[in-house]
Design brief:
- By secondary structure, this protein is mainly β.
- The chain has a single domain, classed as Beta Barrel (Ribosomal Protein L14), CATH 2.40.150.20.
- The chain contains 2 helices and 11 strands, in the order ββββββββββααβ.
- Strands 2-3-5-6-9 form a 5-stranded mixed barrel.
- The termini are far apart.
Length: about 140
């Protein structure tokens, strides 16, 4: 069996819009509705500062609201939208009307088969499998 390549392109420097403790909407049909960020995977920042996340980052979340099977579980998720404006490499400024994530497994493959609402292009370039379930790419 062939090894999988590293996921997409490296992270682009964008404005951090989410931090530990942020409650976020889940934009897929995995059964979770609202999650709370516990940690940001791969984050290395200044000592005693809260980890921050932006579009395309993998975060570790706790499911706050959802069906009884999903509630109170610790899962991984990818940020697909953020409310805070950020600048793309082309110079355009992008902001969405809410913050949203998609629940994924450890390797970055989505658990569900549909993502509701728009998905940022930065998240798809970094995690190509999310592009397969996205309905709109912005």
């Amino acid at each position: 069996m062939a090894k999988r390549k590293a996921a997409g392109t490296p992270r682009v420097k964008t404005a951090f819009g989410l931090q530990n403790g942020s409650k976020i909407k889940v934009a897929d049909n995995s059964g979770a509705r609202v999650v709370k960020i516990i940690s940001v995977a791969g984050y290395s920042g200044r000592l005693n500062t809260y980890p921050k996340a932006t579009v395309g980052d993998m975060v570790i979340v706790s499911v706050q609201k959802g069906n009884p099977k999903m509630r109170r579980q610790i899962v991984k998720a990818i940020v697909i939208r953020q409310k805070r404006p950020y600048t793309r490499e082309s110079g355009e400024i992008i902001s969405f009307e809410d913050n949203a994530v998609v629940i994924v497994n450890d390797s970055g493959d989505p658990r569900s088969n549909e993502a509701k609402g728009p998905v940022a292009r930065e998240a798809i370039s970094r995690w190509p499998r999310i592009g397969g379930i996205a309905s709109i790419v912005v």
